[in-house]
Each structure stands twice: as structure tokens, then as C-alpha cells.
């Protein structure tokens, strides 16, 4: 598996070199520009910007990490590729035809409000005069809590390290489909988590965390040290420097798995909390796990939001829907060349979406049918020993 990954990376890096030096990359960017209606609008997404990437890699979900140096290079690379780095509001205005852009646009976004952003991204952005928006799951801001995905990742790694065989009878039924492939070596922890998190409501994740923690005997080393989240003072400090903040629910909730009353509360309360704490107007939203539905979009629009970002890796178009903004989720490995070092042609090709145009990368659609029923079943399966299984 690792060999295939290295090989794929090598092929991509080699292709990037050819595309870059042959001028194909420029031609592809020009084609995308025409396709997009005159200007490209690239929205990129990051989670954690870290000072010690290799160290963090030992204990954190890899796909959430980028080093400070690579992050800075991404900004430089985007400028060199002809993008103007602008705010989300500017991009939405250009998409709606309210304003005209002289250059292609690139918007930097951060999901989840990790403290790393305050520590390591904010100083770079401030120095370079580049705007950015951070989407906050407000129930976590200013607390010592960790996200379910970080807690689960940590617990699964501990389970693996200790060669621990969980007792499934006292865990939610769904836990076998998460733990099974990991403990048998079929999937890495992060791949298994990726597949699992979007399919199961928060209460199932919490029940697995609680159950596993108990089985592993509790204790401080079962809670990850990493993955700490900003406090409101840090948010306010960034806001004073002009950085924007958007809503990302209260509890980092995948809204398509929740009933309408929960959707309403998660959206409205997270908006109101940021507005009250920071004194700014909140009109932008990021869908947790990138999943959205017509009902969710209607709720956002009715509460005065102007945009919603997905994780669909597709180009945005002038005249497109501001509530299904396409985004490229980036992390360290997006820029790694053949020898595992930083590759400028590869990064450029990624930002220019050459691989999307060639059909190499396959975007995951974020539009989902709302599944309250599954949500309710999800609630039931969290009871230990329940004989009910999750609906597909
Ligand atoms: Zn998120």
C-alpha cells in the first residue's frame, strides 16, 4: 500500500514537471479561466498549520497538517500563478457579478479554529497582508475540549499500540465497521476514520469514544494533548487585524444527519455566539464534513448568510451558487515531490487544478439527502447491547 502511494506521488510529481515546463500548465489554467466565466475563483482549505510537521505527524491525523514553511510557499505559489489573494466576501461578490476582478482570485480558509492557526498561520498572513477566514465550531472555542475526530484518532492509535481487543458487545454496533479494518491491518486509522465520520452522527462517535475510553481503563493519556482550540481573546485579536470568521456549527455537527430543529439551532447559535463574542457580523458558513442539503441551504439563507463552503474539489464559476462554494482541501503531502521534498511545479499544478482537468483526482460530492431517520436509528444504536443496526 505504501509503495503504491509513493509510486502515485512519483508519477504525479513527474507529470507536474512536464506540465509545468512544457507550458501545458499555463494552457490548462487559461482553459479553466474560460470555463469559469472569465476569472478563476480558487478557495483553499486548511486545518492545522504546524511548526514541527514531522513531530505532529507521529500523533495527529496527517490530512489536517501543513508545515509553516509549506503554507507560506503555497501563498507565494498562488501569487506566482496569477491569483490575487482576497476575502471570501470579495470572491462572492465577483461570483455574483456585483464586482469585476482584474485577476484570478484565491481565498484562504481554515476549518475548526485550531490554535495552530493563531500561532503559526496568523503571523505569516499578517506579515504578507493576506486575508483569510476561519470557520468556528463555537461550542469548542475557549474550552479544553478536543474534537471527536482527534479523540477517536488518538484512541484508535492507543488501541492499536496496546494490541487491545475491544469488547464489541458494550460498544455501539457501528464500532465494528470502524475498528475491524484497523485492527486487522486492512485500513490505516486515518483512512478508516475518514470513511466512518461522515456516515455516523455525533452521538454515535461520542458513544464509541466513551466506550473505548472505559475499556482502555481511562486516564489522562487517552485524551490527546494536541489539537487544542483557540479562545475568544485569540479570535478577537485576529478579528481586530481584519481577519474574518464564519460559523461551523456549535459542536462540529454533520448537519445532514440531524433533524431540522438541530440544524436550525446549530446554525443560528453558532452565528449568534461569534457575533456576541467578537462584535462582527457573521454571514459565511462551512459545512462540517463538507455535506449539505437544500434544507440546510434554505436555513442559512433565511438567517442572513451569504455563502457556504463545501469540500468539493471542483472549479467555481461566475454565476455559481454561493451556498455550494467549491474548495480544495490542502495539506503537506499535496506539495511533496518525488523525493518527498517540496516541489514548486507540483504545488503550482495542484493550485491550477491540472489533475482535476486531467480527471486524475475524483471530487467527492457534498450534496446529501437529509437522513433524519438514520439519525434517529443512530441514536438508538448508541445504547450498549442494542440489536438495531445502522441504516445504510
Ligand atoms: Zn470542520
From TrEMBL:
GO terms for cellular component: extracellular region. It comes from Myxococcus stipitatus (strain DSM 14675 / JCM 12634 / Mx s8). Pfam families: Polysacc_deac_1. InterPro entries: Glyco_hydro/deAcase_b/a-brl (IPR011330), NODB_dom (IPR002509), Polysacch_Deacetylase (IPR051398). Keywords: Signal. This is Polysaccharide deacetylase. Its main location: secreted. PANTHER family: POLY-BETA-1,6-N-ACETYL-D-GLUCOSAMINE N-DEACETYLASE (PTHR34216:SF3), PTHR34216. Gene3D superfamilies: Glycoside hydrolase/deacetylase. GO terms for molecular function: hydrolase activity, acting on carbon-nitrogen (but not peptide) bonds. CDD domains: CE4_NodB_like_5s_6s. It is found in: Secreted. GO terms for biological process: carbohydrate metabolic process. Residues 104-392 form the NodB homology domain.
Amino acid at each position: 500500500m505504501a509503495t503504491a502511494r509513493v509510486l502515485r506521488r512519483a508519477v504525479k510529481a513527474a507529470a507536474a514537471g512536464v506540465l509545468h515546463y512544457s507550458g501545458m500548465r499555463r494552457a490548462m489554467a487559461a482553459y479553466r479561466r474560460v470555463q469559469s466565466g472569465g476569472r478563476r475563483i480558487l478557495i483553499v482549505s486548511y486545518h492545522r498549520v504546524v511548526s514541527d510537521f514531522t513531530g505532529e505527524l507521529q500523533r495527529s491525523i496527517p490530512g489536517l497538517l501543513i508545515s509553516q514553511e509549506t503554507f507560506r510557499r503555497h501563498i507565494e505559489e498562488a501569487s506566482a500563478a496569477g491569483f490575487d489573494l482576497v476575502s471570501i466576501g470579495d470572491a462572492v461578490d465577483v461570483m455574483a457579478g456585483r464586482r469585476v476582478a482584474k485577476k484570478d482570485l484565491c481565498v484562504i480558509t481554515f476549518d475548526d479554529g485550531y490554535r495552530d492557526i493563531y500561532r503559526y498561520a496568523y503571523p505569516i498572513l499578517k506579515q504578507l497582508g493576506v486575508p483569510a477566514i476561519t470557520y468556528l465550531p463555537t461550542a469548542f472555542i475557549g474550552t479544553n475540549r478536543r474534537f471527536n475526530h482527534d479523540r477517536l484518532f488518538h484512541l484508535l492509535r492507543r488501541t492499536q499500540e496496546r494490541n487491545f481487543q475491544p469488547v464489541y458487545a458494550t460498544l455501539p454496533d457501528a464500532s465494528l465497521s470502524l475498528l475491524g479494518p484497523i485492527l486487522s491491518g486492512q485500513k490505516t486509522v486515518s483512512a478508516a476514520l475518514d470513511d466512518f465520520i461522515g456516515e455516523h452522527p455525533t452521538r454515535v462517535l461520542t458513544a464509541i469514544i466513551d466506550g473505548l475510553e472505559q475499556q482502555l481503563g481511562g486516564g489522562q493519556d487517552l485524551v490527546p494533548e494536541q489539537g487544542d482550540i483557540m479562545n475568544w481573546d485569540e479570535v478577537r485579536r485576529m478579528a481586530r487585524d481584519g481577519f474574518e470568521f464564519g460559523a461551523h456549527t456549535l459542536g462540529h455537527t454533520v448537519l445532514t444527519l440531524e433533524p431540522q430543529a438541530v440544524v436550525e439551532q446549530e446554525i443560528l447559535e453558532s452565528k449568534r455566539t461569534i457575533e456576541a463574542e467578537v462584535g462582527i457580523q457573521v454571514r459565511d458558513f462551512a459545512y462540517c464534513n463538507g455535506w449539505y442539503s437544500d434544507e440546510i441551504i434554505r436555513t442559512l439563507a433565511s438567517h442572513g448568510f451569504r455563502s457556504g463552503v463545501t469540500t468539493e474539489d471542483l472549479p467555481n464559476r461566475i454565476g455559481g451558487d454561493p451556498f455550494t462554494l467549491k474548495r480544495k482541501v490542502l495539506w503537506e503531502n499535496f506539495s511533496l515531490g518525488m523525493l518527498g521534498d517540496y516541489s514548486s511545479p507540483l504545488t503550482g499544478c495542484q493550485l491550477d487544478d491540472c489533475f482535476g482537468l486531467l480527471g486524475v483526482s475524483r471530487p467527492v460530492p457534498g450534496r446529501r439527502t437529509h437522513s433524519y431517520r438514520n439519525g434517529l436509528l443512530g441514536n438508538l444504536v448508541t445504547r450498549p447491547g442494542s440489536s438495531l443496526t445502522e441504516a445504510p
